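Help! Submission page says 'invalid entity' but I think these are all valid:
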Amino acid sequence: MGERYLKSIRLLAECMQGFERLSGRHVREQGLTHAQFDIIATLGNTPGMSYKELGERTLITKGTLTGVIERLEQKGLVARERSPVDARSWFIRLTPQGEQLFADVFPRVTARGGEVFAQFTESDYEQLEQALAHLKSVIAASP
Amino acid sequence: MGERYLKSIRLLAECMQGFERLSGRHVREQGLTHAQFDIIATLGNTPGMSYKELGERTLITKGTLTGVIERLEQKGLVARERSPVDARSWFIRLTPQGEQLFADVFPRVTARGGEVFAQFTESDYEQLEQALAHLKSVIAASP
DNA sequence: TATTGTTATACTCTATAACTATA
DNA sequence: TATAGTTATAGAGTATAACAATA
């Protein structure tokens, strides 16, 4: 009876899965894993951030994050600098190659997305965005 | 410029991530991995299905699926029978313990969900469902 | 004392490709 | 010839807990 919302969650999961199905191939073609692309996409269009913030945004735990960042660093896609204000902390950002990859892969994934959304009208967007923003706000408000 | 839809995708991803953050703990408390819970949830409330169908629904590739199902079988949560119509194929279904776990974990996750959605009105649901169903349909229609 | 990130452990997932058995 | 699932391989992600350095 208290499961009115299950239909929404199921739809949400199916949409995400559908989108991942479409984008996954391009990600793998660039030699990136899902976790690695998650980091690249999270760092893209930002000045960079700490492990802590990256972990919170991607849901990758700190122990795992060390390894993922290490592999991205070896590939020359991210760089680390010590935080100027907290000597325990690092600041991770995309390198120029990382930016380039982001600028290359993301549009490829999203060009695909563009096709998918070709028939979306402005009104469709507004309805979807409003509904999702509302959902996000109640989820975020949950402890 | 052709990136009007990026906001929707970002919202979609943030909603999924928020929900996973809320449900993840309960899943792990039951000793299940993400992939394993994915299978249990996919088999729940169905008569069962083949590896092929499970793989299509969960995006887990066939080689991986063999191992995931094997571990669930060892835990006594799923059972396999040969398909009566195709001797190459299996029919995987939840065992009574699997059903029990599904009936136990899912509400625990979703009770959490219930709290989150407590303030959702019927109209909120309808708008979200309609928007997501539309999105799903255009994604599914994409090759 | 609490927090940021590292290391160690043990296991699971992952993609990929070659393979077996059946269709 | 094509398809359902298995096996083999090599690597990556995962949670967890104990640890270091710094706050």
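Support: the input was valid. A stray whitespace character was the problem, and the output above is from the cleaned input. Residues 33-36, 60-61, 63-64, 67-68, 71, 86-89 of chain A lie near DNA strand D (CB under 10 Å from a C1').
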